[in-house]
Here is the input.
Amino acid sequence: MSDPFFQPPSGTELPRYAGVPSFMRLPYLPPDHPRRGEVDIGIFGLPWDGATSNRPGARHGPRGLRDASTMVRERNRATGQEPFRALNIADLGDVAMSPVDQDAALAAAQGFVRGMLAQDIRPFMVGGDHLCTLTVLRELRAARGEPFGLVLLDSHTDLYPPYFGGDVLTHGNPFRQAIEEGCLDPARCVMAGMRGTSYNNEDFQYGWDRGVRIVPIEECVAMGWPAVMQAAREIVGDGPCYVSFDIDFVDPAYAPGTGTPEVGGPTSFEAIQCVRALRGLDIIGADLVEVAPPFDTGGITTWLGASVMFELLCAMTG
Here is the structure.
């Protein structure tokens, strides 16, 4: 049972539209807060989209998701879980990431995550574009001393090499880079939901050559989402794994507020079912990325993102 200090206020006591917004109305604990060391899962924002290759806007994701997540209540009616009672969870704020210097931005994010891990806080990152994930993977690898598994729910593999013939990374590269750096065990990586047009097949081939299980949308639909997630559980096994959820995994009819939408994806409910199927895995960290409020319609993407965040927390608390 978590400390009462970490319980969000009820909407029956303080209206959900009132007060200073934090992730799910949880307490905000800056780096110097005396109770920061008591946190089990720390939610933090990386408001940065400097690696976006087309439409920027995900830098506004953490702020938009904080506001939307004030609608989250304490209990998961479907599973019966109450994650805020199971563990001490808090909003640790945003990392100050330079919008004009990629190296400085990534270094700042890694330093922040490094400090969390030194306090045994499990990271829950809210992006930002998908390159933000690499900063968390790097620090988890450094802290744990060995590679780990991955469950990626996304419409893209993000296994392409750097664009434009150089070595500057983009949000299309994080998992290729993570494999190259030894953060991930490819044989324990599964990627589901891939679809849309492509430059070539280089990303899929890279993954196949290294043993990554890639499940394109056609196969997902043929198998059925429960079977896809059961396969994912079998691939990652009982060992530690990281979960990354790109909002463009969901069909843009349900999540238009993202920079690189791809039609033909799962519904909101199917996406939530996928996350619920992760319960019981050894999840050492998670993220939700690529929510871009400037492209949203009526806040439906941020509300879906906040709902996915809550389901991920439920999966992490077991």
